[in-house]
Design goal:
heterodimer; A: about 280 residues; alpha/beta; Rossmann fold; 6-stranded mixed beta sheet; 4-stranded antiparallel beta sheet; 13 strands; about 30% helix; globular; B: about 110 residues; mainly alpha; Arc Repressor Mutant, subunit A; two-stranded antiparallel ribbon; 5 helices; 2 strands; about 5% strand
Chain lengths: ~280, ~110
């Protein structure tokens, strides 16, 4: 479990988090969403022990992240959006350098994932395309098999078939005990995978709820008229997408983009509905 | 009100499985692909597929043999068709009649076709 309590964080005088609390249960794939610059990457860095909270605490399985105890470090891996790669390194070498620090790592997993993503891990990074590099790094990160895997914009740079491959790999990881946190703007790439969904804004957590709970509380209507009482509406082919408070309308298919916009525009209402 | 519904993903997956059963692709007493396989194939969260299977099980379209997996019920097709008829009468038909009224068509016009 990841537990963030009364967390304050600032870069110098610039406050990023002002007293936020958040709990992430083990074994799920969390989608971490937020506008540019609200601190998604900062939050991942705090959870992985790279940044020290100004005040408050951030714990993984009861251990304070910034204490960086070996038992903590071997259970968490963060794959940043951009990884500084050593010259002439191959993914195999990259993985082998990291492997001794992660007891659950599996070379066999790396081979299987590389095969699934169609990437050759014996080729040097510097001759790979950006997309190939990204796939190789994803395979390495997943094969380290940590209890907590933090992925910052994992689908950035992946071509269309690779996105589907990534979804399959991720789907296969779910329910195997690993907790995955995906920070992303490409919500369509992971729409049917991330559950629960966390939305953060400047200085607060606006939503942290499972898809089932979201569709219980909110109704997503596709292609009807625009409703004046909708929390959010947007034109789409064939009418409007309306995000409505669900008053016994049954369940609908979630639109994460619609949800995101509805939550940003109605922070107080959303808080009331979900509390 | 023009009420357009888009079913949640778990129901869409249920519909697809039901179509495969009615179409004969999945026969009665045949084993249903595992939650994990369906999830991977579709690239969705296995918990969503688990909801699909729970729903199909509560509708007695599939049943669980503990430790073995899910199987198609012997009367699955009848049950699916009964559900579909109900859905047709309660949802599709009213929408259809509403559209007929809007276009000024009567049942006579249709029977002449």
């Amino acid at each position: 479990m990841i537990e963030i309590k009364d967390l304050l964080f600032a870069y110098g005088k610039k406050s990023v988090f002002d007293n936020i609390s958040l709990r992430l249960e083990s074994g799920a794939v969390y989608g971490l969403l937020g506008e540019n610059g609200v601190g998604k990457t900062t939050l991942l860095k705090i959870v992985s022990g790279l940044l020290r909270p100004t005040l408050g605490c951030c714990r993984v399985d009861g251990e304070e992240c910034f204490d960086r105890a070996p038992s903590f470090l071997q259970s968490v891996f963060l794959l940043p959006d951009e990884v500084p790669l050593p010259d002439n390194a191959t993914p195999d070498a990259f993985f082998n350098d990291l492997a001794p620090f992660y007891p659950k790592q599996s070379g066999e997993m790396l081979r299987n994932m590389a095969k699934e993503l169609q990437v050759d891990t014996s080729v040097k990074f510097n001759v790979m395309s950006f997309g190939q590099q990204k796939k190789a790094l994803l395979a390495c990160a997943m094969a380290l098999n940590t209890d907590y895997l933090l992925l910052d914009e994992p689908t950035n740079g992946l071509d269309i078939p690779s996105k589907a491959d990534f979804r399959r790999l991720l789907s296969d990881r779910i329910g195997q005990g690993q907790t995955i946190v995906i920070s992303t703007h490409q919500v369509k790439d992971v729409e049917n995978l991330i559950d629960p969904i966390i939305i953060i804004s400047n200085n607060s957590v606006l939503l942290n709820a499972s898809v089932e709970r979201i569709t219980e509380k909110l109704y997503f209507e596709y292609g009807g008229e625009q409703h004046p009482e909708a929390l959010y509406s947007e034109m789409m082919p064939g009418g409007y997408l309306n995000v409505l408070v669900n008053n016994g309308m049954g369940e609908s298919q979630i639109s994460i983009e619609g949800l995101f916009n509805a939550v940003l525009r109605n922070a107080a209402t959303i808080k009331n509905i979900f509390d | 009100m023009d009420f357009k519904k888009q079913k949640p993903i778990y129901q869409q997956i249920a519909d697809t499985l039901c179509e495969r059963i009615v179409g004969g692709e999945l026969a009665a007493e045949e084993r249903v692909p595992s939650v994990r396989d369906v999830a991977m194939q579709l690239g969705v969260n296995p918990n969503t597929v688990m909801r699909t299977f729970d729903y199909l099980q509560s509708a007695e379209i599939i049943y669980n043999k503990r430790g073995v997996g899910y199987f198609v019920s012997s009367d699955a097709t009848d049950r699916i068709l009964a559900l579909r008829r109900k859905e047709f009468m309660e949802e599709d038909l009213p929408a259809f009649v509403q559209k007929m009224n809007m276009l000024g068509l009567t049942f006579d016009d249709i029977s002449k076709m």
